């Protein structure tokens, strides 16, 4: 079990050589550790619908085709405490079944256990959204949760 589910934040991180990435139903978060004292002018970051390029002081940190499409105009990056770059990408497809299995098409894949935990988390997030007012804090997802879990939309209310 390489990446525990962080109950308070609901994050299932996927560790990488440069930091980590994680996702929600709507967003993908990338956290890149950089040398302390890094300044914004040291960073070059290009965010496109299906591509990301990030370099620090001329050194490429992350570059490639994203696993799925994002909303280009809503992608942002920030430098926090001059030692962490946080990139936030808005997913184009925001269904619980759209659980990214890797950050880039052929790199930074979540191991099977982490992927399973990510999918459970997105399914639980979907249930919370569909049932406002219910407390799911102690809930556990088991059974069919792949592709966002069972579809209850056809049931009568």
Automatic annotation (TrEMBL):
<dbReference type="GO" id="GO:0005737">
    <property type="term" value="C:cytoplasm"/>
</dbReference>
<dbReference type="GO" id="GO:0051082">
    <property type="term" value="F:unfolded protein binding"/>
</dbReference>
<keyword id="KW-0137">Centromere</keyword>
<dbReference type="GO" id="GO:0005813">
    <property type="term" value="C:centrosome"/>
</dbReference>
<keyword id="KW-0007">Acetylation</keyword>
<feature type="region of interest" description="Disordered">
    <location>
        <begin position="138"/>
        <end position="157"/>
    </location>
</feature>
<keyword id="KW-0158">Chromosome</keyword>
<dbReference type="Pfam" id="PF04969">
    <property type="entry name" value="CS"/>
</dbReference>
<feature type="domain" description="CS">
    <location>
        <begin position="14"/>
        <end position="104"/>
    </location>
</feature>
<comment type="function">
    <text>May regulate the LIS1/dynein pathway by stabilizing LIS1 with Hsp90 chaperone.</text>
</comment>
<keyword id="KW-0597">Phosphoprotein</keyword>
<dbReference type="InterPro" id="IPR007052">
    <property type="entry name" value="CS_dom"/>
</dbReference>
<protein>
    <recommendedName>
        <fullName>NudC domain-containing protein 2</fullName>
    </recommendedName>
</protein>
<dbReference type="InterPro" id="IPR037898">
    <property type="entry name" value="NudC_fam"/>
</dbReference>
<dbReference type="GO" id="GO:0006457">
    <property type="term" value="P:protein folding"/>
</dbReference>
<keyword id="KW-0995">Kinetochore</keyword>
<dbReference type="GO" id="GO:0000776">
    <property type="term" value="C:kinetochore"/>
</dbReference>
<dbReference type="GO" id="GO:0000922">
    <property type="term" value="C:spindle pole"/>
</dbReference>
<keyword id="KW-0963">Cytoplasm</keyword>
<dbReference type="InterPro" id="IPR037902">
    <property type="entry name" value="p23_NUDCD2"/>
</dbReference>
<keyword id="KW-0206">Cytoskeleton</keyword>
<comment type="subunit">
    <text>Interacts with LIS1.</text>
</comment>
<dbReference type="InterPro" id="IPR008978">
    <property type="entry name" value="HSP20-like_chaperone"/>
</dbReference>
